[in-house]
Amino acid sequence: MSGTVTVPESLARHTDAELRPDPSRVVGRLFLPGEDPRAGRSRVAAIVQRVLALPEAAVEEIASDLVRDFSGRHPDYIRMVTGHAGMVNSHIDDVTALTPARTIVLGASFTMEYTVEGAALCNPSAVIAPDQSGLSSGQVRVAVSLRSIGEGHVSSIGFATAVVGPGPQWVFEPRATPPAAGMSRIAGWRPEELRAVLGDLGPVTKLAHAVLTALPDPFDAQDLGQVLIESQPSLLARRGGQGTADLLRGLVASAYQLEFPAGSELSGRTLMPGSAEESNGIEDARFVRFTDADGGVEYRATYTAYDGLHIAPRLLTSPDLRVFRAQRLIGPAARNKGMALFPRLIGGRHYALCRSDGESSYLSSSPDGVLWGKAELIRAPEQSWEVLQVGNCGSPIETPSGWLVLTHGVGPMRVYRIGAMLLDLDDPRKVIRRLQQPLLQGTNSERDGYVPNVVYSCGGLIHDGRLWLPYGIGDARIAVAWVDVDDLLAAMSPVES
After folding, report:
1. Which end of the chain, C or N, has fewer beta carbons within 10 A?
2. How many domains does the chain have?
3. 457 shares its domain with 317
4. Are residues 288 and 231 part of one domain?
């Protein structure tokens, strides 16, 4: 997949680099068939009993066939199905009587393959990759996050890598297969973090305050369970006590850590929904390579969690794009889609772009990157091609002239286009320049897709004087464009203060 440049009439130059969804990229997931309360029995229990009733000779043959047919598609197949078998062992009187073969058959009966890109692949963001080995002069390797959409319109986060340069070249590297979903566990908390989350949701109850006071620092889900059981029986018995306890358990479980094997390739890693508020998908990760006040560097990304009814902005942090922590973002600015983090502190504070009213660009700041204060409007829809809404297309990119912000505008017939504006380096509340016309709009061949008339990106980067912009087409596939940064800045009009 090469990136030979074709010269378009617009400012942005399209390349022929492209990624399309690959239906062979499957992961294994727990499958629990739906229950019908009117039937008066458990389907899970019935399936378990059928597996237990199979003759051992048949079990040995079935298990052998399963390992042969699926271990090539899932390198950790036996561990995966053994884990799924463990999730239904409450229906078994004597778990120790299960042979290894019957455990495999039992676990496979509650396992399904899920095609992460079965419907679409879109909305990429690009950052400098952790691995820069094996490159020539003038080249850089970039990590490209991907929104992968599968059955039921459930989204996950995948990755690709590409080599950029020398010159105007972008080449996607082969993607590792099969994809891996990683190992997940509930993350640790600090009591003040949980207190801030509770305060964002409403008044902190007496029970919640008592629990927070009794928790160790740091604590985990097991610590919370012990405090709830041993320390607060009288408060739990009060009206609303059980509801508060359930809320605390749910909040603690919403933060988790996901880890991939040390030898795994980035393009083979897939972040599947990992908490209740992500149950219907995790969407549109905007990655940025963040530098803190001490010069330390880590990867951060905002993304949107969806549970089928509500959305929630959330945060990913990672030192290396192999180990991730996922948690809630809180505060007045963390209410809508499209948060994008600045790549460094400004005046000792974290900053982020957001779309608090759903249709305009806002700016918010935070003391810690988690609790975000009230957002301030910096730009409302103005041009004819953005009358429905205007928002960001990823994290601001620092240039000597200012913070370069790629924007998306939505106009009549819900047509998306990509624009740009420039914010003051020291005071990002100030828009100092902006494009009057779109930087990028879909060509005739880019109109159709899963969602027609959409070109959208979650972040680009600058290399060797060029802004590189991977973007989704029709919420279905991914293309790449570029523009000389000097040409882009020169094309922007000053904004009167």
Report:
1. C
2. 3
3. yes
4. no
Nearest to 188 by CA among 325, 30, 393: 325
**Are 418 and 439 contacting, i.e. CB atoms less than 8 angstroms apart?**
yes
HEC profile of 268-316: HECECCCCHHHCCCEEEEEEEEEECCCCCEEEEEEEEEECCCCEEEEEE
Compute the distance between CA of residue 151 and CA of residue 135 in angstroms, rounded to an integer: 37
Within a domain: 474 = yes
Q: How many residues does the chain have?
A: 497
- Co-location of 240 and 310 in the same domain: no
How far is CA 184 from each of CA 181, 393, 413, rounded to the nearest angstrom?
Answer: 9, 29, 42
Q: What is the number of alpha carbons within 13 Å of residue 85 lying toward its C-beta?
A: 23
The conformation of residue 356, written as its DSSP 8-state character, comes to T
Structure-token pair, residue 271 = 């972040």
Q: Is the pTM of the predicted complex or chain greater than 0.85?
A: yes
- Distance (Å, rounded) from C-alpha 295 to C-alpha 304? 28
Mean pLDDT by 10 residues, the chain (497 residues): 43 94 93 72 90 96 98 92 94 90 97 95 98 97 98 96 97 93 90 91 89 93 89 70 89 94 94 93 97 96 95 96 96 92 98 94 96 95 94 98 97 96 98 95 92 97 98 97 97 89
What does the longest C-alpha to C-alpha distance in the chain come to?
81
Question: If you search the block for the tokens 């957002």, which residue do you land on?
Answer: 375
**How far is the C-alpha of 412 from the C-alpha of 435, rounded, in Å?**
19
As a whole number of Å, the CA-based R_g of the chain is: 25
Structural domain that includes position 294: 268-494
Q: How far apart are CA 370 and CA 350, in angstroms?
A: 9
Asked if the structure places residue 40 within a domain, the reply is yes
Q: Is the dihedral of CA 370, 372, 378, 379 positive or negative?
A: positive
Q: Which residues contact 45 (CB under 8 A, 6 or more apart)?
A: 91
DSSP string, 394-407: SS-EEETTEEEEEE
CA dist list (Å): 434 to 27, 149, 415, 439: 43, 33, 20, 10
Q: What is the DSSP string of 134-195?
A: T--TT-EEEEEEEEEE-GGG-EEEEEEEEEE-SSS-EEEPPPPSS-B--EEEEPPB-HHHHH
